[in-house]
């Protein structure tokens, strides 16, 4: 382990800067925050982000598109999905266990 010694004034300035950054991040709207080291826009996500977010393969996403289960937008050969649409599909396709009370 390497030990670095700095003066108390420099330390206090550093702590002050860190606190300013922390308060700036806390004041960001939810859709501008970083989750799991990855920016996820609250409105739209590309196919790679959707696969990582849901833990599915690209083939599964392709099948959902082909079967017209999920809507998407194509811009410059890149596909984008609405987070609202993803939540809708997840809710519609959720499987209830036996003896699980209805919500």
From TrEMBL:
<dbReference type="InterPro" id="IPR009061">
    <property type="entry name" value="DNA-bd_dom_put_sf"/>
</dbReference>
<dbReference type="InterPro" id="IPR041657">
    <property type="entry name" value="HTH_17"/>
</dbReference>
<protein>
    <recommendedName>
        <fullName>Helix-turn-helix domain-containing protein</fullName>
    </recommendedName>
</protein>
<feature type="domain" description="Helix-turn-helix">
    <location>
        <begin position="44"/>
        <end position="94"/>
    </location>
</feature>
<dbReference type="Pfam" id="PF12728">
    <property type="entry name" value="HTH_17"/>
</dbReference>
